[in-house]
Design a protein that fits this description.
4 helices; Nuclear Transport Factor 2, Chain: A; 5-stranded antiparallel β-sheet; alpha+beta
Length: 205
């Protein structure tokens, strides 16, 4: 009886071992196919901002909705500042700048910060319209740029600003920003172009 019991127990152990081996092989195959599938498909990140529906971005391309969202927030960041906020403003702007444009943009931002720091001049922008082009990674905003000295508004000018972006993987970074010079209007060097153009890319108006 003991021999028969030992044989039966050995058979059960052998069967369990075989099942474990088969299960391990099956899981390994599934994991391998999952890795292959993950490597061959575009990476996607699903964001949940304050929107009516989830927003999805992919390394395969940039959606118009996402570019609009980033442009809206970048406009608020770039064009609203006070003498008290210039240091924070400069640091936050540089966080969205691409490394290839970092040095140029930082130089322009430092000039603006030095001019505004310690003064009583502030500015804010009221946006009236936006156009985005995901294909060439540009976006434009139009509105009124208000300049304040103390509590008094001294200027309110209709302006259009253009952003130029670069998109790698799922990362959108700023490489250029400036005021659009309308057709026939003189640029800073005194020349008038036949068509609309953008002022120096690194310049922050």
């Amino acid at each position: 009886m003991e021999v028969g019991f030992s044989q039966a127990q050995a058979q059960r152990v052998l069967k369990q071992r075989n099942m474990l081996v088969l299960t391990t092989i099956g899981l390994s195959v599934v994991a391998l196919f999952s890795l292959i599938a993950a490597a061959s498909r575009d990476r996607e990140v699903v964001l949940q901002p304050v929107l009516s529906r989830p927003l999805e971005i992919s390394s395969n391309g940039l959606s118009k909705e996402y570019l609009e969202l980033v442009t809206r927030d970048a406009t608020v960041l770039m064009l609203n500042r006070t003498p008290q906020s210039v240091d924070y403003w400069m640091g936050e702007v540089l966080k969205i700048v691409h490394p290839s444009a970092y040095g140029r943009m930082k130089g322009e931002l430092i000039k603006i910060a030095n001019d505004q720091r310690g003064s009583s001049v502030a500015q804010y922008f009221t946006m009236e319209g936006m156009q985005v082009n995901p294909e060439d990674l540009t976006s434009q905003v139009t509105g009124v740029l208000h300049t304040m000295v103390g509590r008094q508004e001294v200027a309110s000018l209709k302006r259009t600003f253009q952003f130029q972006w670069t998109y790698t993987g799922v990362e959108l970074r700023l490489i250029g920003f400036g005021a659009v010079v309308p057709a026939g209007e003189k640029s800073k060097d005194g020349s008038a172009g036949p068509a609309a153009s953008v002022s120096d890319e690194g310049q922050v108006q």
